[in-house]
Write a structure and sequence with these properties.
heterodimer; A: D-Maltodextrin-Binding Protein, domain 2; 2 domains; six-stranded mixed sheet; three-stranded antiparallel sheet; 11 strands; globular; B: mainly alpha; MetI-like fold; 74% helix
């Protein structure tokens, strides 16, 4: 009997020394450069914490749409991962509202993120007075990429606002009637919103943009919103008409592409298809007047009842640091939110401009990936915009958006955005 | 050998358990459809028929129902009838049928994702096969937006659906036709009946049991079709090609309105019952002894 007790004691001591703690992590970075980037991050984390075994669960599906479906089941069943990726804002709020996340104010303060991140970042992850996620990667949604070869050939300059955009479109159509000045692929749906957002920013500015997407504007009676849709309608004759049959990358990959409003995540795609920056293509923030940074944020969270909460906290502390953010974002094609990451670590001019604007220009969360408006509304809104592109009736679209905003209670569900001053 | 009831029940237990889980999930969905569940976490707040009212007053919902009805009529009937006619024609030409039958059957074993992708490329307006062929044949007036045109995209998808499922109808009808007693056919031939008359007066009635199966399964397929819609158009342009199963997925998992999504699921079930029960009853009365 005594021998048995001794044996059990010895075995349990051994099991302690051999058991590594785990980090069960869910994310959606499964494609090309993203996969490389997250692997690099894991490599650096393993160096810092060699005793933590990373159990990776990559779920394919850009923007985390599939991940959210998977998590819905896991979280409701009380089996959360130790940490998972999330967008910020209204998307993150769905987890907070479901009472699935723990606040991470302590990590935020320990890493002095008030000092190193712009204040808007905190706004996008704060609900009911607490921080619920750690941001670690930023994309910008409002770039105008253009075919430099064509522009040089036709002696054109990239437009700075929507009036100039229409002018450029007109000139291109006159000289090259076979081309469609605005390349668009709405199979992914969100690109229709990207294009409209650029128009809205140019016509109405960032303040109205923020209020519009948080339900604080009388949509049916606001002259600026009406004007934005009138401009959107004016662009239609210059937009590739069969946009719903292609994704944004298919549209961009065509030889006859001219201009596209897209995020900086398209830079990696341009390089992958062998186009030379400054020769074949170039890009300008759009609109340049006013210069606004439409922000898309990726964050990681701390679920309640996480089995390896200690590992998760170590992960969140780790990703909030300058060095890991730098290494990750260089490969990912995004930029680091951390102030200490120098601007010249990024090899391309697009991202160097991104960093300068992120630190100097007005930042506004992107409506659809930001996430500024509630997802339930955005899912309907995308289709309203695409239907407008097929049948532009300004009065009807204002009515539809107003009805949708009321139905999905956009104003009530966006109070969080205005809660933090 | 007498089988004891206890043993019988023991062997049936696994089957009963699985079926029991299925009915439990059905009941759960029905209950959730009356709940005001919006968001990630379950919300058990009774809301009566509110979710159904939301759907019935939504134009998007009725577009979806319309699309499902279009599928029901333009997919089920052509697939069933072409399958039947094709099976008969191939039975009359045994040497050619040895080559053609596998060709018609292959699409059925291809994944719907592959089918959808291929047909989306076929119907792509700029560089798709169809418009390129029409341009080559100088039939430019026939070129149109196809899958990018909100008015005709749904018909393009139905073509893909028929292409994929024709083999299914073909196989079932071929098997049924082989069971028709040859003396019936010989007697008809002796009486001077043409192949067309034989088809309508002998074959069609005697393969009625296969017709019941084929049409029932095709109806069920149309009410569940999700993969082709997802792959070919994502319900687009806008929501012009959206169907109820796609709507159910979008409402539940994208918009997190689980109560309303469950209501869509219940409505799909009710439509299935309303369509299938009278249809089956009619077919069975007509063709079963």
């Amino acid at each position: 009997m005594r021998k048995l007790i001794v044996l059990v004691l010895i075995l349990s001591i051994f099991s302690f020394s051999f058991s590594a703690s785990k980090l069960v992590i869910y994310h959606w970075w499964t494609a090309g450069g993203e996969k490389q980037a997250i692997n690099k991050l894991f490599e650096l984390f393993k160096k810092a914490y060699p005793d933590i075994e990373i159990v990776e669960n990559p779920i394919v599906g850009g923007g985390g749409t599939t991940l959210r479906t998977v998590l819905m089941g896991l979280l409701a069943a009380g089996m959360p991962p130790d940490t998972f990726q999330s967008l910020s804002g209204a998307d993150l709020k769905t987890y907070v509202d479901g009472n699935y996340l723990q606040p991470v104010d302590d990590i935020w303060n320990a890493q002095k993120l008030d000092e190193y991140f712009p204040p808007l970042m905190k706004k996008m992850v704060t609900f009911k007075g607490h921080v619920y996620a750690i941001p670690m990667s930023i994309h910008r949604a409002n770039w105008l990429m253009y075919n430099k070869k064509l522009f040089d050939e036709l002696g054109l300059k990239p437009p700075k606002n929507v009036d100039e955009l229409l002018e450029v479109c007109k000139k291109i159509k006159e000289k090259r009637p076979d081309l469609w000045p605005i390349s668009l692929g709405t199979r992914d749906k969100f690109t229709a919103v990207f294009l409209f957002d650029a128009v809205l920013l140019s016509v109405a500015g960032p303040d109205v943009y923020e209020k519009f997407y948080t339900g604080r504007i009388d949509v049916r009676n606001n002259p600026l919103i009406e004007k934005a849709f009138e401009y959107y309608a004016k662009l239609i004759p210059y937009i590739y008409p069969y946009h719903s049959a292609q994704t944004w990358d298919q549209a961009l990959g065509r030889d006859d592409w001219v201009m596209m409003v897209i995020g900086d995540f398209a830079v990696g795609y341009m390089m992958a298809v062998g186009r030379k920056y400054g020769v074949d293509w170039d890009a300008v923030p759009f609109p340049a007047e006013p210069n606004t940074f439409l922000m898309i944020v990726d964050t990681f969270t701390l679920p309640k009842k996480a089995k390896n909460e200690d590992s998760a906290r170590k992960w969140l502390k780790f990703i909030a640091e300058a060095e890991p953010e730098k290494e990750f974002t260089i490969l990912k094609g995004s930029i680091a939110p951390h102030k200490l990451v120098p601007v010249d670590v990024y090899p391309d001019e697009v991202r160097r401009i991104d960093v300068k604007d992120f630190r100097g220009a007005r930042i506004v969360p992107s409506s659809i990936h930001g996430v500024l408006a509630p997802q339930s509304f955005l899912s309907e809104y995308q289709d309203i915009l695409i239907n407008f592109l097929y049948s532009p009736d300004v009065n009807r679209v204002l009515r539809q958006i107003d009805d949708a905003m009321k139905f999905y209670k956009v104003k009530e569900n966006s109070e969080w955005y205005w809660a933090m001053k | 050998m007498r089988v004891r009831l206890r043993t019988l029940l023991l062997f049936l237990l696994p089957g009963f358990t699985i079926v029991g889980i299925l009915y439990y999930m059905l009941a759960w969905t029905g209950i959730v459809s009356t709940m005001d569940w919006v968001g990630m976490a379950p919300v058990w707040k009774f809301a009566g028929l509110k979710n159904y009212r939301i759907l019935f007053t939504s134009q998007r919902f009725w577009t979806n129902v319309k699309n499902n009805m279009i599928w029901l009529i333009l997919f089920v009937i052509p697939t069933g009838i072409f399958g039947m006619v094709l099976a008969y024609v191939l039975e009359l030409m045994p040497r050619i049928s040895r080559v053609l039958k596998p060709i018609f059957f292959y699409p059925l074993v291809i994944s719907p994702v592959v089918t959808g992708t291929l047909w989306a490329w076929f119907f792509e307006p700029q560089q798709g096969v169809l418009n390129v062929i029409l341009r080559y044949l100088h039939l430019d007036f026939l070129r149109t937006g196809w899958i990018a045109d909100p008015k005709i995209a749904v018909y393009c998808m139905i073509v893909a659906g028929i292409w994929q499922n024709l083999g299914f109808a073909l196989v079932l009808y071929t098997a049924a036709m082989r069971e028709v007693p040859s003396d019936h056919l010989d007697a008809a031939k002796v009486d001077g009946a043409s192949p067309g008359q034989i088809f309508f007066h002998i074959i069609v009635p005697e393969i009625g049991h296969a017709t019941i199966v084929v049409f029932s399964l095709l109806v069920l397929y149309t009410l569940k079709v999700f993969d082709l819609v997802w792959v070919m158009t994502r319900g687009g342009p806008g929501y012009a090609t959206e169907v109820l199963p796609y709507l159910m997925y979008r409402i539940t998992f994208r918009q997190l309105m689980v109560g309303v999504g469950s209501a869509v699921a219940v409505i799909i079930l009710l439509i299935s019952i309303v369509v299938l029960v009278p249809l089956s009853k009619w077919m069975m009365a007509r063709w079963m002894e």
